[in-house]
Amino acid sequence: MPMRRVAVIGGGLVGFSTAVCISKSLPRCSVTVIADKFTPNTTGDVAAGMLIPHRYPDTPIEQQKRWFQETFSYLLTICNSAEAADAGIHLLSGWQIHQTAPEEKFPFWADIVLGFRIMSMAELEKFPEHQFGQAFTTLKCDSQRYLRWLESRLRENGGQIEDRKITDVWELHGHYDVIVNCSGLGARALVGDSKLHPVRGQVLKVQAPWVTHFIRVSDGSTYIYPGMSSVTLGGTRQKDDWRLSTDATASQNILNRCCALEPSLKKAYAITEHVGLRPTRSAIRVEKEVLLRGSYQLPVIHNYGHGGGGFSVHWGTAREATHLVEELIASLRGSSAKAKL
């Protein structure tokens, strides 16, 4: 059986995790990641790397839960191994707080994270403006370490990396058997997806080693996420805002909101500002498509549109994309067999 050539477009979290999953699950495939941006210059590098799911309105909850379960289990295994420090993965406990009690006190992911419970009144005394809260332990990835670790896993599996910008997927026709499109926000231009839009996120990374619990306001507007090397403070959610430059007013606003929740952050130091554009859709696109140009066909698997929730579901969607690659390769094999007959 010949080696099948797979090209993964995109050098961020989704691209590398999908490439690693394919190279691990389908050893008869040669995998090449092609992109013009890699860590530390991807959207994933700005992300805090917390595993707290974001809802996708047009993706079934059962599917979102499966993706999160698969991602959590995968990362927890790494967290419990000798690879944890290199991969930048650790457990983190903390609180999600609400101004008023929500209708859904136990979200769909409550039984996946560890030790989920309703906060006690004594705990809520720390947050006098909030009347309800949930306490749990989840996983956090140090984004740059994790991206470097994924890259090293791909190389160990025999994968290749190519630094170039793809402006038309047909550039790869004849060179690869299957194209996997993990181009994130780039899919707007690459495949003409007008359902995809940027949501600008600005965060601060600070030194505050005494802060050891996460705090997240339920709507995701304000959060404090301690990591291995810094604490991430956020944030902003600015739809259709393409600015990559930092905004001093937004930074001050983030710091003020976070200090209101954790006053000790007034002593934080070594503050740096970061901006990323979340590739947002109402539903993550994980599907196969066969593009046609005259008599030529180009098999493509799409895996993009994760918005601000990529770390929470990236391995689940990578596994689904890998299954679709496997199906496509099986159909190619079937076509070859018929042609010989």
Automatic annotation (TrEMBL):
Protein name, please?
A: D-aspartate oxidase
Q: What does this protein do?
A: Selectively catalyzes the oxidative deamination of acidic amino acids. Suppresses the level of D-aspartate in the brain, an amino acid that can act as an agonist for glutamate receptors. Protects the organism from the toxicity of D-amino acids. May also function in the intestine.
Q: What is its main location?
A: other
Q: Which InterPro entries match?
A: D-amino_acid_oxidase_CS, DAO, FAD-dep_OxRdtase
- Family matches, as SUPFAM superfamilies: FAD-linked reductases, C-terminal domain, Nucleotide-binding domain
One Gene Ontology cellular component annotation? peroxisomal matrix
What are the entry keywords?
FAD, Flavoprotein, Oxidoreductase, Peroxisome, Signal
Q: Does the keyword Ribosomal protein apply?
A: no
Where would you find this protein in the cell? Peroxisome matrix
Query: Residue limits of the FAD dependent oxidoreductase domain?
Result: 5-324
Q: What is the lineage of its organism?
A: Eukaryota, Metazoa, Chordata, Craniata, Vertebrata
Q: Which cofactor does it need?
A: FAD
Asked whether the keyword RNA-binding is assigned, the reply is no
Q: Which GO terms describe its biological process?
A: D-amino acid catabolic process; L-aspartate catabolic process
Reactions catalysed, semicolon-separated, are:
D-glutamate + O2 + H2O = 2-oxoglutarate + H2O2 + NH4(+); D-aspartate + O2 + H2O = oxaloacetate + H2O2 + NH4(+)
Molecular function (GO) terms listed?
D-aspartate oxidase activity; FAD binding
| EC code(s) of this entry | 1.4.3.1
Family matches, as Gene3D superfamilies: D-Amino Acid Oxidase, subunit A, domain 2 (3.30.9.10), NAD(P)-binding Rossmann-like Domain (3.40.50.720)
UniProt signal peptide: 1-19
Q: Which family does it belong to?
A: Belongs to the DAMOX/DASOX family.
Which PANTHER family does this UniProt record tie to the protein? D-AMINO ACID OXIDASE, D-ASPARTATE OXIDASE
Under Pfam families, the record lists: DAO
